[in-house]
Design goal:
The chain has 5 helices and 6 strands; from the N terminus they run αββααααββββ. It is α+β, with helices and mostly antiparallel strands. It folds into 2 domains: 43 residues; 149 residues, Nuclear Transport Factor 2, Chain: A, CATH 3.10.450.230. The strands form 2 sheets. It has a 4-stranded antiparallel sheet with strand order 3-4-5-6, with helices on one face. The protein has a two-stranded antiparallel ribbon with strand order 1-2. Helix 2 packs antiparallel against helix 3.
């Protein structure tokens, strides 16, 4: 015959088992957590670091990301200048549309000004071809927005005569959402300005 006392003993025994099991599980979780923390700490200490020009220690992963961003920024500027300053009758409108995706209103303002001045009409009227010969960009990657200066050598073919010009442009780059295929690098040109344009002798453009 079962008595209330026996039922209480069984309940206490079951409670003891549950408490012991909980303690064991908690101990295992704590030990596992400590092991993981130690492992993460060792991995972080063993990670490769580089020292910047001002003496700051930077993880190599961040350095690689920065280098990749600089490569994309240079490619963005090269693509833009090729499209914006490469003008010929059959493709200039399509290229101009592509170029305007890579910059903000400051780029559009220069395009509209050139168009209002009749720049494109003169090139097309006289069957002139404006080709980009070389693009060299310098970018300050220390902080966003990233200031840049680009030297673009432009050839204007006038039949048997080719004139070469050096154009210096400046502006800033900001990061935006990538937009394929219009803006694959996820960068946007702002504060765009044409600083100077000068005609240069042909021997100055000769590459070694």
């Amino acid at each position: 015959m079962k008595t209330p006392f026996k039922n209480i003993q069984q309940i206490l025994r079951l409670n003891r088992i549950v408490v012991l099991a909980s303690i064991v599980m908690a101990g295992l979780v704590c030990i596992t957590s400590v092991i993981l923390v130690v492992k993460v700490h060792k991995d972080s200490m063993n990670q490769a670091f580089v020292v910047s020009s001002d003496g700051a220690v930077i993880p190599l992963q961040l350095t690689n990301e920065r280098e990749n961003l600089e490569v994309e920024a240079l490619a963005h500027l090269e693509q833009f200048h090729n499209w914006f300053y490469g003008v010929e009758a059959n493709s200039y409108e399509k290229n101009m549309e592509k170029a305007l995706w890579l910059g903000n209103a400051s780029v559009d303002a220069i395009y509209r000004q050139k168009k209002a001045d009749g720049f494109y009409n003169r090139l097309l009227q006289y069957s002139l071809v404006q080709q980009v010969e070389r693009i060299d960009s310098q970018i300050d990657m220390d902080q966003e927005p990233y200031a840049f200066q680009t030297q673009t050598l432009i050839n204007i073919n006038r039949g048997t005569v080719t004139d070469t010009y050096e154009l210096i442009t400046t502006g800033k780059l900001i990061t935006v959402a990538r937009h394929f295929p219009h803006n694959p690098h996820g960068l946007l040109i702002t504060d765009f300005f044409e600083n100077s344009l000068r005609k240069i002798a042909s021997y100055e453009t000769t590459e070694k």
